[in-house]
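Weekly modeling sync, notes
Attendees: S.R. (lead), two postdocs, one rotation student

Agenda item 3: backlog of single-chain predictions. S.R. asked that every request posted to the team notebook include the full sequence so nobody has to chase files. The rotation student volunteered to paste the first one in as an example of the format we agreed on. Action items at the bottom.

Example entry:
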Amino acid sequence: MRAVAATAVVTAAVAVAATGCSSTGDGSSGGRTQAAARPPSIATSPPTTPSPASPASPSSPSSPSSPSSAVGRGRLVPRYEDGRTAEDRRTQRFLQDNEVLEHVTAFANERIALAYDVPVVAKSCGGANASWDPRAKDITYCYELVEETRPVFLEQAAREGSGSAADRTRAAEDGVIGFSNGVLLHELGHGLVDMYDLPITGKEEDAVDQLATLLLATGGEQHIDYAVSTINAWGALADAQEAGDLSGLFSDEHSLSAQRFYNEICWLYGSDPAAFASAVIAVGNPDGVLPPLRAEGCRQEYEQIHRSWNRLLQPYLK
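Predicted structure, as returned to the notebook:
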């Protein structure tokens, strides 16, 4: 499974690096020379098919503590628990030093009003996971998931082989940060479905993957990089799954990692086909990863996702 190169995003394209990726549930990079064009906010209509039901794009979002027309004054509230093991404590320090929970919660709080405060807790869990708890009404991000994911991005950075060892380590850490954002926004999606009793047809896991990708794709250059990191992680996990026994995965509530990999590439490409054209396999672009038959419908898929989530979340958007 090929990895999508984040550096290509900043020059308005998705290129392809070597192979990539891993995990269950999702940094700023230096040296940018040209910012990617910013797709429309989740609160605005896609450029080619504006939806009359979509609220107008706010030029300056309301303060999270006082949403204007949005219902609810709750917020995501980040918290770190002390790790139980030495490795978990190193992971805790990594997340805290990079303010991972602080940044993703602030990003979401600027956009969506919640009915009540929701703790977002990084902690030792005894296994790699992230989850929304419908009883406790909180989001858990396990240190073990970060530890499972870090080698994926270290391997990817080593394959790309550019820069010093410190540069490769930083690139891997940026990948972990990006994947963490994707995972936590996915779990926020579960929380919103539960909190507001949102109607979902089909698999909820797929629906909240769509929301997470939509939020990242419309969040600006850095968050597009985060979307790429999340995609690369699904690609690596797909490689690991294909090397093992898939039988137990077919009945899982989650789509296969390979499906999530291609879905999220499709939706990111669909958010701006001109900017991400090099994601598509084509004559002269053998390093593309998205089959052209799937690519044909990606703009329509993205616009449908955009309209649907805007309609569901309209009363709660800031």
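Discussion: group reviewed the output briefly. The two ends are 38 Å apart (CA to CA).
Action items: rotation student to repeat for the remaining queue; S.R. to check formatting next week.
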